[in-house]
Amino acid sequence: MEAQREETVADFRTALLSRVKRTVIKVGSGVLTGPRGLNLSVIKHLASCINDIKQKGIEVVLVSSGAIASGFKKVALGRKPKTISEKQAVAAIGQPALIMAWEKAFERHGQKVAQILITRDDLTNRRRYLNARNTLRTLLSWDIIPIINENDTVVVEEIKLGDNDNLSAMVTNLVDAHLLVNLTDIDGLFDSDPRDNPDARLIPVVEKVDSKIKNFASTIPGFLGTGGMSSKIAAAQKVALAGIPGIIANGLRPGVLRDIFEGRAIGTFFLPRDASLCKRKHWIAFAKAPKGELVVDKGAEKAILFNGKSLLPSGIMEVRGKFGVGDSVVISNERGENIAVGLVNYQAVDLKRIKGIRTSKISSVLGFKHADEVIHRDNLVLTSETEEGVEECHFKS
To answer: How far is Cα 345 from Cα 90, in angstroms, rounded to an integer?
Structure first.
């Protein structure tokens, strides 16, 4: 029975990979750097594999870590940079060397590349999000490989994406990719940390990211990277909710990308969810950083969770944080549980004045009315949807 199931999963994996026409490949610092800085032999090998993938008619977007690691080795700091300014300075030193290494590696195959540096701020603004998507699509149409990294030289905590694992998930959705490949320095997801436990077993397939899978993931990041296995699991979960499969594999394994795209069972394969979030709801749920919180009463909670309703001011009990029109806020119930996230039609200062009142009273209190709804249903994503996905979407892109 188990053998039959494995055969079915293998066939499903092969079928999914056969339909991939655009992929995002994320390469971590643990793969790209060695004792003396950038591992140029690994970069050359991966560039060769990516070129082979492109020869199959598959477009590739590369998310590359390594700027901080490269700069760290150059300045011989002796310790991992701690402050934001130290990280920014080290990244500024390392980023030119990183992009130059990739450019030289791809130049051997007659392949052009483009450098794109992104912060969360570029993805939370809908217009800039769409502009970034159009730019990436144009580069791909010109047969140029975009090489993306978080803009560590200017990023601050408020706009930081968190790590390149999270960035790779955002980019996968941004460019409508069909697969996310996350290359790290271990073979995939194990049931315990293989660095500590020699008996740790590789998990070849993950059907759903649940609490058990999250517990398996190591939360210990590499010395120079920012994302441990837990962030890679979170990235795989995000793309799965968009209906996109993901693979975590060992980027130091010779020929790993060729093997993956030839259908071999390499690394850990994350199955896509059958019911996926539409692109706009995925953007609301994962790209927008919440800037506040609205606590709602039981009536509003029921209307949102079970009746598919918008959030009205009458159901709001408390307004927390400072936010403006169009910002993302978390919706919590009286028990302190997060039940949804959405985009608000009113700024915090105005919501504090109209919380608990009927919509017919908004104009008399504020002197104006943007909308009856504080958060319209179309701009609201339930917490359960970010775990299970949804089948319906009324938005385009």
So the answer is: 40
- Of 223, 256, 274, the residue that ends a domain is 274
For residue 142, which phi and psi values (nearest 5 degrees)?
A: -90, 10
Any domain includes 395? no
Q: How many CA atoms lie within 13 A of 15 on its CB side?
A: 8
Rounded CA separation 350/52 (Å): 56
Residues facing 320 on adjacent strands: 293
- Give dist(CA 177, CA 238) in Å, integer: 13
Task: Pull the structure tokens for residue 261.
Answer: 């795209």
Contact by Cβ (8 Å): 246, 231: no
**Do residues 337 and 295 lie in contact, with contact meaning Cβ atoms separated by under 8 Å?**
no
Are 368 and 265 found together in one domain? no
CATH of the domain at 296: 2.30.130.10
pLDDT in tens, 197-243: 888 899 999 988 888 888 877 544 454 445 578 889 989 988 888 88
Has residue 65 been placed in a domain? yes
Tens of pLDDT, residue by residue over 93-108, are 888 989 999 999 999 9
Rounded alpha-carbon distances, angstroms, from residue 64 to 27, 119, 145, 167, 350: 5, 14, 12, 10, 43
* 397 part of a folded domain: no
Domain shared by 76 and 132, yes or no: yes
Phi then psi dihedrals of residue 295, to 5 deg: -95, 125
Is the same domain home to 370 and 265? no
- Report DSSP letters for 311-367, one per residue: BPGGGEEEEEE---TT-EEEEE-TTS-EEEEEE-SS-HHHHHHHTTS-GGGHHHHHS
pTM for this prediction: 0.78
CATH number, domain with residue 66: 3.40.1160.10
Using the 8-state DSSP alphabet, how is residue 290 labeled? P
Domain that holds residue 96: 2-274
The string of pLDDT tens digits covering residues 245-276 is 999 999 999 999 999 998 888 999 998 877 66
- Structural domains of the chain, count: 2
Cα gap 271→259, rounded to integer Å: 18
Residue 394 lies in a domain: no
